[in-house]
Amino acid sequence: MSKIGSVTASISLTSEDLIIAEDLAAGYKDKLVWKNANFAFGHGEFIAIIGPNGAGKTTMFRMILGLQPPINGSLRIFGKPPSRGNPKIGYVPQRHLIDSETNIEAVEIVRLGLSGKKWGFNPFSREDREAAYKALESVSGIDLAHRPLGVLSGGELQRIFLAEAMVSKPEVLLLDEPLSNLDIRRETELLHLINDAVAKQNVTALLIAHNINPLLPHLNKVMYVANGKVATGKPSEVLTSESLTSLYGVQIEVLRDPHGNVAIIGVEEHHGDVPL
Amino acid sequence: MSGGLIETLQQMFSYQFMQHAFEAGTLIALVAGVTGYFVVLRRSAFTAHAFSEIGFAGASGAVLVGIPPIGGLVLGSVLGGLAIAALGRRAANRDTQIGIVLAFALGLGLLFISNYKAYATTAYSILFGEILGVSVQDVLLTLAASIFILGAMGFMYRPLLFASLDEDVAEAKGMPMLFLGTAFMLVVAVSVSFAVQVTGVLLIFSLMVTPAATSQYLSRRPQVAIIISTAIALSAVWVGLTIAFVTPYPVSFFITAFVFGLYLIVRISRSLIKPRKLKASEEQPILVSQSQVG
Q: Which of A103, A239, A271, B262 is an S-S bond match for A54, by CB 3.0 to 4.6 Å?
């Protein structure tokens, strides 16, 4: 258990931290998804969340967004408990492609990321459109502005969704599997765009991914969610056979190839049902 | 058709019932063009149709107890709208449940109307529309409803577009999704009730769906598409009323024929000049500067 200590000890709480969790647990009425999560993320950090399907990665986002209350422990964001609709959080949900019949130009959905919450009829606001074009520019998507959403490819849509999330200048960015269904070239391109946005605007980005390897060069921290537990820390500390084995109580191997790529072996796909 | 168009129009507008028909028809086309855009965007066409048939039960029930059909129409479709909204999000796409309720509502309407053989013409006009029988009171009531509906749509425009286009993000941003869904269902219910005066219960799609579906092929900008959708609905009502005036055939037919013809023309010409969809391998690569790589 001392190894868990070394993982969590790397987190030192400071007033600078944007997102702080202490002994946090997530779940529903009669089902615990994970528990004992401790972490603190500061300005401009890039954090990857990895783990098997159904382990509760999206649940983490739903809690930060204020869509789901913690069942134990505390979670604070910007010094307060999460509340739904916080304008300082940008969110790109995991989703399937947009209906191919949707013949609405891409810049429209970006613009709605800025003014979609406003009541009253003011569709021709110049500032909105200019901000939307700027956001599109920041994701190299200016040439997509007037293309219909329904014909965009997966990678192009992810850039549009990223612009939609970034247009309101958030301090925290939550990205749920933006890299899935992208080929390696497009994965690399999107990752550079995200990293660039994080660096330029000092955004704290949390990104859910299946494959940690393309992310490793950019990451400050990694959060590993599996079997009802959450390990958080620097990739070099968390992603070791010793720390994961002692945390999960079963033998877990972290293999590294000469290029620094890692593979995690030993945690089975798990869908909740954690003993309380 | 003897005489020029001008003379025909002069003659047409000399009749008070034709004036009322144009007034009510114009208002309804405006409302149907605007709300119809969101009905199509949200894939709620079937729901709109269900409202009209639940409204039929309400209207025939109203005839049974001796109140104007429009009262029963509004009451029936508003209750239907609340019920569908109460089923929760994405309920508007629950085809099976809506179909089950719709069939029962139509049966109920049949029961009500069958008790009163004398009202067979009423049943016919509810089912297929009777814009030529609109009274001054009907026009004023339609005007009040139109102001309410267009005001509500203007107020909800951006949040409704956001919620329709990107439900998950809109919800995460704290939009009141249940309120929006319910408010929109009520607006559609009231719009459908009034549009039934023109098209009848069975032909409601011709004003609520076809113009908006056509307009989505013609513009990628929602505001422009809404204007086009409204223009199509307006033209259909005006052309339909005019042709029906000089021929012995019903207005509703000409409205359905006009919008369907236009839809066909737009779809066919679009498929002929449709831009080729790029394959993934043909996409423009994103330029990533050297400073970003690394």
A: A271
